[in-house]
């Protein structure tokens, strides 16, 4: 199979449809100038063959292959190649019937890419399979030698050269199989690990558990046998006891009747003694009452009188003591007031000092006014003497002042002349500079316009940024908020999961039973559907609800059925359908009765303590409607067992009173109440929802801002660039010579303005001086009138000074009065201080007198208290006498009561005996009935009754204690109940099944291990075959390599040998000999010789594994003409079985070709022309080249 023709359209430099026909089946060459498109023909062949590494065809993507990247109006690139398929031995699989195969590949701008085989669409994989079947795998090519391949071969390391041999020998297939086998081993290892994991984690623990369950089951059977034995022993004992009870009942009845008779006799004797004691008690009480009414009353009156006198004296003493306290308090107040006045006096003294200071300051100010008055008087005297005051206030004559004015006029004229000269010079300089600036104006104006345009662009960008309504840094702020919210959401989820882990029953999850399922039909767990109004009620409500707390509420029974059947519930649930549930609530009369019993605040219905939505009322009534909650045990007991209430009641602590008679209570679990924690769970859920909503809002805002933020960043980047450009332009303008000239012009203008101002000012000064001179001159003429005028002014100034002096005198007088007033207030305070001292002295004298009165009255009170004490002692003695009588009466009464109690006890014993008699009668009847019942229930009693209690039998009550047997039987029954809940009756069968599975997995494990061993053997065989094939390939390639190199470079030799100290499998390197000398390294060769070494190896590889087509791209670039000629001849003579397409710029190569294609680049488009070459022409061209070569050598020798 070889190329017959190529059609290019829109591919790289071939913009127009270009047909390249007449390819030779053996040797074709392509030549042309650089950039004319010769290599593009080879790129088109690689493109059609499906190359994946586009860098080899000098492109980064498929769009680069279209003419000018589609910018010239051409939007697609098409390559079609027609292959000759007449040689059926080289035909691709499935195309043996076709003599020609035309394959087309087309790529369109935008990425669309398609293949056609003989005009029919085909996928990429089919085309690749077609080419690979004839040895044209373009992605792993040995038939494609592009530019740079020779240099790459020269730079290869020994392992890389070995890899080329492996590729040519096809041992890569062995490597692929080896890798596949190793992957299979990995899978087998994973399978072994999986089997071992199942054995270790599932089967073995399950077998251990089943063995334990089998042991439990055997123990359970043993226990049942023991229970049966003990039951017979205990029943036999009860039967014997019942018969003995029946026999002993008559004797005990007689004993109890005789005891009743004795007790009745004792009761009669005790009643007689009680009557005697009652008479004696009455006599003693009469005598006691007589003494109480006489002597005792007199003593009590005496004590009362003494206490009255004592109380009166004590009151008088207390009054005096109160007076003493009042006087003491008064003295303290006086002392306090005196201290406060002392502080005020100190403040007044400071105020007096300040007033004196102010007075002194006023006096100093008056001194200044006096000096001003004196100066005014002196000025008046000077004016009276004929002197005048100038502008500075100094006294001078009119002639002196006129001389000063003349000097001022002269000075002003000089300054004006200087300013006029400076102004003239500046104006001339200004005209010169303006003329120079006009010449430089064009360039500066251009920069100025550019600067203004940039400023307008900046304003436009700022306006666009403002329209975006985007705050700089908003996206970063939102990203930070997103991270913060994400962390908070994670923390809340962890807290929620932690709480739900403590109460897993609160977790209710299900999958939708059907499509478009409305989840609002399932309301949820009862625990999540109500709120506890007071946390203190949480424990009671939890007890009331019990297991119903975890029931699921749904809207109807259909929803409940679907949920149970298809909801994939993870555990068993009870469903409460709202439309079917039968709820009952307590009667209002019952609740009112309960509240009357214990108070309205101490009992509530459980339903009233929870909050819920109205639609859930039936469910809440079902859970809480029939129970009351009380605050204490006593109230709960009273309410529960009251006939008018008779309702189940729960305390706040969780104790339950049932009207049927049961009580439930005791220590509760130490963990927190579910309902108390449920509020925390709901708060966390709400916080989580809020945070998730905030996070979603931030994410939504972020997604909405994404485009705006990107556009804002672009605009800001543009703004920064324009701002920088404006700054550079402004700097350029400021540093330009035009700008400097403008500054100089501005300075000249300022100088001109200053000179003009100076001229204006000098004119004004000159004018004022002249006016003043004229005034003084007039004054000289009118001296008398002027003197009179100045005299009046001096008199006026003197009068003003005098008025100031008078005002000062008035103010001085006021300050003196203020100082005197403060001094008087200070004197008044001193007098008040003396009055306080006198009052304190008087109070001290009064205190002394009151203290003397208190001492006298204290003596009197002591005497009165002694009289009261004596009267109390006498009264106590009389009371002792009466108490003795009381004790005697009490003793008699106690004896009478004791006898009465004996009678009561006897009466109770009689009733008890009577009760016991009736009980014994009942017990006798019960024993008879019990014996009859036991005989009826246990058939074996009749046959084994004679053995009951007999020694050496199963019913020997001495050897086997029946009571202990009964207790043990009870314990065994409890153990049996526990074992029945846990015992697995199918343990024996399940253990057998587990053992079978264990053995089966062991068998599978052995099979996998055997497979692994076989795979390892296969890998060994593959390695051996690979080494054999590689050795054969190396020897063949090495032989061809040496032969080709000797042909290309006569007198030289080359071979491929392993590095020193290594084997063939470690790598191969080049060994080259020029003559008989083997070179140590390729660097000792010239560039052309090294290129021949690489090219020889490549051609030897081509000989080892021929392909139908070979493509060579300028492989002779580093060779001279003679070597190029040798290569061309060798290709034509040695590779007659394949088609060569060679790109070359040298005659020695393309003159050996049968067909030569020349490329040209005309008007931006590549064109191709074909030339067929005869062998004679080639020989002639060769001889011409040899002659030219000999001529050059002769010229070199001659020189």
From TrEMBL:
Cell location: Chromosome; Nucleus
Gene Ontology BP terms: cell division; DNA damage response; liver development; mitotic chromosome condensation
Family (UniProt): Belongs to the SMC family. SMC2 subfamily.
Superkingdom classification of source: Eukaryota
Protein name according to UniProt: Structural maintenance of chromosomes protein
Entry keyword ATP-binding: yes
Gene: smc2
Organism field: Danio rerio (Zebrafish)
Boundaries of every SMC hinge domain copy: 520-640
């Amino acid at each position: 199979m070889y190329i017959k023709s190529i059609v290019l359209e829109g591919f790289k430099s071939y913009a127009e449809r270009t047909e390249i026909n007449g390819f030779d089946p053996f040797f074709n060459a392509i030549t042309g100038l650089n950039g004319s498109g010769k290599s593009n023909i080879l790129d088109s062949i690689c493109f059609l063959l499906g190359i994946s590494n586009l860098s080899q065809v000098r492109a980064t993507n498929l769009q680069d292959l279209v003419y000018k990247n589609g910018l010239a109006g051409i939007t697609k690139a098409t390559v079609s190649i027609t292959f000759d398929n007449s040689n059926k031995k080289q035909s691709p699989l499935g195309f043996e019937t076709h003599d020609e195969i035309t394959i087309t590949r087309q790529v369109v701008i935008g990425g669309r890419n398609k293949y056609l085989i003989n005009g029919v669409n085909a996928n990429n994989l089919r085309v690749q399979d077609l080419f690979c079947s004839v040895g044209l795998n373009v992605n792993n090519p040995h038939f494609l030698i592009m530019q740079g391949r020779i240099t790459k071969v020269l730079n290869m390391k020994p392992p890389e050269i070995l890899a080329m041999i492996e590729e040519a020998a096809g041992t890569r297939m062995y490597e692929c199989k080896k890798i596949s086998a190793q992957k299979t081993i990995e899978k087998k290892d994973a399978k072994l690990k999986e089997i071992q994991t199942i054995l270790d984690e599932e089967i073995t623990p399950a077998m251990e558990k089943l063995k334990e369950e089998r042991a439990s089951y055997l123990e359970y059977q043993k226990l049942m046998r023991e229970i049966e034995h003990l039951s017979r022993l205990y029943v036999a004992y009860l039967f014997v006891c019942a018969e003995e009870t029946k026999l002993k009942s008559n004797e005990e009845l007689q004993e109890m009747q005789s005891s009743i008779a004795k007790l009745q006799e004792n009761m009669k004797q005790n009643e007689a003694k009680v009557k005697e004691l009652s008479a004696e008690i009455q006599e003693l009480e009469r005598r006691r009452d007589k003494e109480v009414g006489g002597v005792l009353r007199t003593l009590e009156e005496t004590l009362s009188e003494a206490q009255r006198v004592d109380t009166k004296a004590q009151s008088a003493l207390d009054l005096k003591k109160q007076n003493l306290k009042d006087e003491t308090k008064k003295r303290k107040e006086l002392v306090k007031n005196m201290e406060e006045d002392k502080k005020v006096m100190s403040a007044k003294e400071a105020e007096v000092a300040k007033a004196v200071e102010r007075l002194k300051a006023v006096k100093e100010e008056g001194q200044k006014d006096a000096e001003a008055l004196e100066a005014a008087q002196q000025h008046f005297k000077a004016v009276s003497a004929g002197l005048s005051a100038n502008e500075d206030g100094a006294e001078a004559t009119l002639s002196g002042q006129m001389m000063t004015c003349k000097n001022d006029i002269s000075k002003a004229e000089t300054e004006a002349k200087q300013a006029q000269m400076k102004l003239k010079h500046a104006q001339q300089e200004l005209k010169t500079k303006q003329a120079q600036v006009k010449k430089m104006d064009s360039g500066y104006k251009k920069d100025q316009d550019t600067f203004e345009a940039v400023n307008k662009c900046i304003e436009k960008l700022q306006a666009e940024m403002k329209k975006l309504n985007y705050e700089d840094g908003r996206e970063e702020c939102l990203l930070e908020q997103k991270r913060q919210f994400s962390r908070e959401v994670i923390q809340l989820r962890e807290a929620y999961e932690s709480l739900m882990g403590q109460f897993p029953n609160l977790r209710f999850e299900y999958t939708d039973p059907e499509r478009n399922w409305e989840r609002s039909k399932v309301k949820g767990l009862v625990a999540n559907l109500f709120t506890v109004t007071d946390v203190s009620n949480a424990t009671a409500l939890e007890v009331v609800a019990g297991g119903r707390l975890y029931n699921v509420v749904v809207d109807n029974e259909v929803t409940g059925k679907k949920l149970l059947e298809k909801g994939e519930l993870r555990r068993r649930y009870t469903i409460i359908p709202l439309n079917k549930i039968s709820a009952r609530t307590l009667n209002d009369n019952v609740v009112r009765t309960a509240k009357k019993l214990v108070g309205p605040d101490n009992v509530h219905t459980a339903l009233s303590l929870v909050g819920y939505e109205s639609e859930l009322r039936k469910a809440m009534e079902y859970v809480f409607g029939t129970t009351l909650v009380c605050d204490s045990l006593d109230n709960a007991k009273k309410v529960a067992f009251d006939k008018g209430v008779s309702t189940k009641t729960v305390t706040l602590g969780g104790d339950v009173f049932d009207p049927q008679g049961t009580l439930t209570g005791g220590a509760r679990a130490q963990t927190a109440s579910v309902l108390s924690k449920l509020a925390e769970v709901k708060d966390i859920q709400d916080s989580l929802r809020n945070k998730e909503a905030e996070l979603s809002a931030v994410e939504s805002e972020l997604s909405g801002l994404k485009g705006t933020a990107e556009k804002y960043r672009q605009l800001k980047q543009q703004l920064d660039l324009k701002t920088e450009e404006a700054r550079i332009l402004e700097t350029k303008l400021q540093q330009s010579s035009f700008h400097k000239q403008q500054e100089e012009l501005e300075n000249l203008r300022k100088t001109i303005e200053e000179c003009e101002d100076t001229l204006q000012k000098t004119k004004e000064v000159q004018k004022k001086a002249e006016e003043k001179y004229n005034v003084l001159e007039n004054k000289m003429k009118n001296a008398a009138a002027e003197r009179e005028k100045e005299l009046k002014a001096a008199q006026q100034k003197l009068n003003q000074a005098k008025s100031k002096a008078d005002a000062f005198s008035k103010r001085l007088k006021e300050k003196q009065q203020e100082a005197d007033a403060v001094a008087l207030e200070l004197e008044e305070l001193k007098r008040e201080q003396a009055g306080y001292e006198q009052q304190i002295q008087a109070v001290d004298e009064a205190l002394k007198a009151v203290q003397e009165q208190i001492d006298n009255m204290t003596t009197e009170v002591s005497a009165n208290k002694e009289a009261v004490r004596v009267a109390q002692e006498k009264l106590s003695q009389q009371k002792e006498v009466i108490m003795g009588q009381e004790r005697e009466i009490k003793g008699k009464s106690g004896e009478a009561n004791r006898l009465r109690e004996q009678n009561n006890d006897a009466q109770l014993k009689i009733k008890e005996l009577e009760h016991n008699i009736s009980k014994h009668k009942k017990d006798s009847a019960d024993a008879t009935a019990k014996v009859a019942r036991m005989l009826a229930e246990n058939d074996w009693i009749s046959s084994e009754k004679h053995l009951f209690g007999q020694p050496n039998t199963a019913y020997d009550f001495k050897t086997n204690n029946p009571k202990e047997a009964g207790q043990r039987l009870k314990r065994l029954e409890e153990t049996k109940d526990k074992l029945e809940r846990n015992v697995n009756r199918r343990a024996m069968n399940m253990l057998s099944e587990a053992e079978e599975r264990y053995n089966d997995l062991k068998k599978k494990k052995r099979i996998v291990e055997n497979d692994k061993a076989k795979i390892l053997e296969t890998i060994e065989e593959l390695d051996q075959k690979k080494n054999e094939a590689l050795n054969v390939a190396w020897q063949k390639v090495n032989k061809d390599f040496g032969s080709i190199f000797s042909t290309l470079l006569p007198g030289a030799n080359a071979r491929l040998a392993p590095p020193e100290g290594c084997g063939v499998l470690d790598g191969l390197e080049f060994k080259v000999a020029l003559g008989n000398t083997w070179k140590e390294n390729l660097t000792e060769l010239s560039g052309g010789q090294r290129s021949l070494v690489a090219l020889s190896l490549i051609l030897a590889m081509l000989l080892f594994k021929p392909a139908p087509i070979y493509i060579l791209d300028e492989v002779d670039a580093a060779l001279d003409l003679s070597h190029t000629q040798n290569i061309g001849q060798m290709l034509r003579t040695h590779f007659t079985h394949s088609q060569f397409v060679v790109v070359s710029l040298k005659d020695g190569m393309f003159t050996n070709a049968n067909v030569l294609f020349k490329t040209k680049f005309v008007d931006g488009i590549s064109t191709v022309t074909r030339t067929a070459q005869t062998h004679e022409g080639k020989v002639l061209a060769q001889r011409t080249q040899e002659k030219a070569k000999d001529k050059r050598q002769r010229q070199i020798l001659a020189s």
